[in-house]
What we know:
Mean pLDDT of chain A: 96
Radius of gyration of chain A: 20 Å
Helix content of chain A: 55-70%
Largest sheet of chain A: 6 strands, mixed
Largest interface: A-B, 70 and 70 residues
Structural class of chain A: alpha/beta
Low-confidence stretches of chain A: none
Strand content of chain A: 5-15%
Oligomer: homotetramer
Distance between the termini of chain A: 35 Å
Order of helices and strands of chain A: HEHEHEHHEHEEHEHHEHHHHHH
Amino acid sequence: MGSGMATRLVNAGFPLTVWNRTALKAEPLAARGARVAGTPREVAAASEVVLTSLADPAAVTETYYGPDGVLAGTRRGAILVDLSTVAPALSKQLAVDSERAGARFLDAPVAGSIKAAEEGTLAVLVGGDRDAYDACQEIFKAIGRISYHLGPSGSGATMKLISNAMLATVVQALAEAVALGEKAGLDPAAIVEVIGASSAAAPVVKAKAAAIAERAYHPAAFTLKLMQKDLWLALSLANELTVPMPAAAVTHDMVVAANATGRSDHDFTAVTALMEQLAGVTR
Amino acid sequence: MGSGMATRLVNAGFPLTVWNRTALKAEPLAARGARVAGTPREVAAASEVVLTSLADPAAVTETYYGPDGVLAGTRRGAILVDLSTVAPALSKQLAVDSERAGARFLDAPVAGSIKAAEEGTLAVLVGGDRDAYDACQEIFKAIGRISYHLGPSGSGATMKLISNAMLATVVQALAEAVALGEKAGLDPAAIVEVIGASSAAAPVVKAKAAAIAERAYHPAAFTLKLMQKDLWLALSLANELTVPMPAAAVTHDMVVAANATGRSDHDFTAVTALMEQLAGVTR
Amino acid sequence: MGSGMATRLVNAGFPLTVWNRTALKAEPLAARGARVAGTPREVAAASEVVLTSLADPAAVTETYYGPDGVLAGTRRGAILVDLSTVAPALSKQLAVDSERAGARFLDAPVAGSIKAAEEGTLAVLVGGDRDAYDACQEIFKAIGRISYHLGPSGSGATMKLISNAMLATVVQALAEAVALGEKAGLDPAAIVEVIGASSAAAPVVKAKAAAIAERAYHPAAFTLKLMQKDLWLALSLANELTVPMPAAAVTHDMVVAANATGRSDHDFTAVTALMEQLAGVTR
Amino acid sequence: MGSGMATRLVNAGFPLTVWNRTALKAEPLAARGARVAGTPREVAAASEVVLTSLADPAAVTETYYGPDGVLAGTRRGAILVDLSTVAPALSKQLAVDSERAGARFLDAPVAGSIKAAEEGTLAVLVGGDRDAYDACQEIFKAIGRISYHLGPSGSGATMKLISNAMLATVVQALAEAVALGEKAGLDPAAIVEVIGASSAAAPVVKAKAAAIAERAYHPAAFTLKLMQKDLWLALSLANELTVPMPAAAVTHDMVVAANATGRSDHDFTAVTALMEQLAGVTR
Lengths: 283, 283, 283, 283
C-alpha cells in the first residue's frame, strides 16, 4: 500500500523523503526524485508532514517509539499521519505522545486495495485535530478519491475497523448464500449475478463474483490472515466498549476456521470455499 | 405488491381478470378495465396465464388447492405463475399438480419493494419450464426491470430465499457497525455515509442510511415480522439440505429478538435499534 | 428404544399386545408372552393403554392417523401415550383427535439412551390430562427412574426439545473446549477429566470423556443425524414462539456441518472431531 | 478468594507472611499468627513459596514486576505460584522472568467460588515444572480438594480459561432453555428441575436452579463483568491459536449485552434474565 501512495505523492510534486525497512523498496521512489532516509527518525527530522503505512500494530509501535523512530526526530509543529489499520487505543496514545513532542497526530487508515492505492482511489478515514486534517487536504487528495474527518483521535481507526468488520460479514453472508444455492442445484455464477443486482449487492459482491464462481482465490487482494487480524481488532474494540456483535463474531469464527484449514494466504472471499466444504458441496 | 403489478399489467394493455380476497382492492383495477372474478377458479378458467401474489405459504396453498382454487379451474395449456415467496418444496409440489391439471407452473418470486412493484423495477426470479418462461417474457418485462431463469421448478423460490437471507445478514452487519461506531463516539450519519461509500455499500445501506441515522423505522417498507418468515424459510431449506449458515442463523436470532421486544411492524432495518439497545447506546 | 421399554413392561407383568413395522422385532417379546398384533389398529382395539415409540413425526402421524392406525381402533376411555420426540404442535393435535375418539392422550417423550430404556432408567416427560398421568404411574415406573407431569398437552414434548437443545449445546461447548485445549498443547484426556470435575461437569461429559479422548464415535448412542432433527424441532418451536436461541442456533450449524461432512451416523459427540478439524488440530 | 485460601493455610500450620493492597484485609490473618509485610517484595524476601491471588492481569503484572514487587525480592530456589486467572502468555513470561531471578514459577489458577476457597474445595489447575508442583502438594491440599499438573508453564492458565468458557456456554444454554420453556408455558422451576436431572445436568445447573427460578441474581457468586473478562481471555487465546469457538463467541455476545444493559454486578447466571427479556417473557 505504502509504495502506491508514495508514488502518487511524488508524481503529484510533493518533495518526499522516504524510508522502508527493505531499502530496495525505496529505489523506484528514489528514481522518481524522492530522497531516501536511513531511519524513520531521519524522515521525521526532514519533514513537515510524516506519513506512515505499516502492516500491523507492532510495526507501528516500533516505527514511532524506537530509538530511531519518528517521535525521536519529529519537528515542532509537524503533522504525523498514520495510514495503518490499528486499534483506536494505539492511535490515541500516539496522539498524546505526538503532542508531547510538539506535533499533531492524525489516525488516517485507508480503505481500499493495493490497486486503489496505485490509482489514488482510496478512502481516507481520519481522526484527530480538524486543522491538521484541513492542512493535509492536498495530500489526501493525491492518495484518495475521498477523505472524511470523523472526530477526535482514534475516530479514523474506529471507522476503519467497523468498515472491515462489516465487509467481512457481508462476504460471510455471500459465502453462505452461495453454498446454500449450490447445494440446492443453482449455478454459482447465477447466484452471484442475481445477488449482484439485488439490494444486497455491495461492490465487493460484484468485484468478487467471477472469482467466487470460478473458485479462484489466488492471488489474494486481501488475505484471510489479514482479515482475521482486522476482525479481531474490531471485536476487541467491541468487547472493550461492551457492544455485542454476534454476526461479526461468528464471521470471525469462520475466518479463523478458514485460516486454520490452510487458506490463510487466500483472498478473504475464500470463506466461500470453507462454507462449501462444510455444506458438503462438491463442484 | 399484487395490485402494483396488476396495475402495470393492465396499463400495458394485457386483458386482465382479477380476484382479491378483499373485493374492494380490485376496484381500482376494474376502473382501469380489468374484469373482476369471484374466485381464483374463475380467474383460472378465464386466463391463459394465471399470476398469483400472496402473503404466505398458507394463502398460496388455499388459493391453488381450495375447492374454488386455481387448480380447480385451470385451462389445459395454461401457464400458472406464483410470484409469492414460499418454500421451494411447495413450488415443486405446485409444479407437479399443475402438470396433472394440464398446465405448466413457474415459481417466480419477485425481489423489491412495494414502490418497485408500482414502478415496474422488480427483479423476477424464475424456476420451471424454460419455454413457459420464454412465453411470459412480455409479462415479466411489464412488472420488472429484469428476470432470470434459474433452473427447474423451485429454483426461483430458492434464489429468493437466499437473496433475502443475504439481505437480512447485510443489515445485521450494518446494525452492529452502527452500534459499535456510536458507542465509540462516532456520528451515526457519518458511519452510514462512510459505509455507503465502501466496498460493503450494498444499495440497501444507501437506501436506509437516512432512516437509520434518524431512527425512523416507520412506516415499514418490509417488516421485521415478514423478514423473520423469509429468514426462517431460508434456514429451513438449509437445514433440509444440510448447509450450515451461522451468520444467517444469528441474524435470525436478532430479528426474532427484535420481534419479541415490540418491533414486529417496524421496518426490518430496526434490528439497528435492537443492537443499539443491547450495546447500551442512548442517543 | 421401544423394544427395551416393551421388554420391561412384559417382565413387570403387564399383559402386552405389540406391533412393529418389522414383524421380526416383535418375536423376542412374543417369546416372553406378548401377543403380536398385525396393525396399530389391532393394538388399540385390544388395549386400555396404548404406548407408541417411533423414530420421527412422519412415523407418528402414520401410526396414529393411517387407515390401520391407532385412532381407527382406539377404545372409548383408553389412554394413548406417545413416547416419541415430536413437535408440541403434533402432540396437541393428537390430543384433540384422541378426545374426539373418546380417548385421552399423553405426550410422554423419554430422555435417555437405549441402555437406559433396557435398564428402566429413562426420565419420562409428560404433558396432558393429570388424571391420565396418574393412571399411568405403574407403567412409567416400569420404564423410567422418574416421571414428571409438566402441564397440558404438548408440555412433555416441549420439555424434551428444550432438554435436547441444552444437551447439544453442552456438547458443542465441550467440543470447543477440547479443540482449544489440544491446540494449546494439553492432553485431551486431561481436558475432559478436569472439566468432568468442574461446575460444568454434566453427566454427558463424564459419560463421553473416554470416547472423546480416544476419538471413538462409533457405534453411536445417539447419532448426529437424530440430534440435528431434535435441534431443528427445538429451533422451530423457538421461531414459532419468537424466542432467540443464539447458542443453540450455532450449535445446530455445527451439527449440520458435521452431518454434511460425513459424520451423520457417528455419535452426536463427534462434533468434537469437526471442531478439531476446523481448528487444524491433528492428533 | 485470597483471604479464604490464606486463612486455610495459616490454620493448617504454614508459617505465613502476608500482604494485601488494602492493609486492613490482612488483619484477621495477623490475628491468627500471620506476619504482615509492607510490600510483595518483603513477602518474597521472607518466603520459600510465594502465592499470589489477584483480580486481573494488570494487578498481576504490577505485583510481580513493580519496584516493590515479588521478582525484586525473590529468593534463589523459591517457588512462585500465581493463583490468578490470566492469559497463558503472561504466565509463560512470568516463568521466564522467575527463572532469571533464580526461582521456579507455577501458574495455578483455581476453579471454584469464594465459599469453596473458605472450605478448601477448590480445584487447582497447575502448569510449570513438575518437581515444583510436587513440592507444593501440601499447600495445594490445604486450599483445594484436588490439583492437576497439566503440563509446562501456561497449561494451568489455559485449562482455567477453557473451563470458564465451557461454564459460560453451559449457562447460556440453560438461559435459552429457560426462556423457551417459559414462553411455551412451562414453570421455570420445573424446567430447571428436569434439566437438573438430565444428562446436561452440570453441577452449576443444580447450584443455580433456585436462583434462576426466583430470578435472584444478587448477591453475585461470580459477576457477569468478571465472566466477560474470562471469556474474552479464552476467546483471545482461541484467536491467537486459530481455533474457532462459535458457541463461546455468541455466549460472549450475550454476556456483553447483559453487561451493557445494566447487569454487570449481577451473578453470571443473569444472562437468563437477558434471554427472557429478548424473548419477551414476562413473569
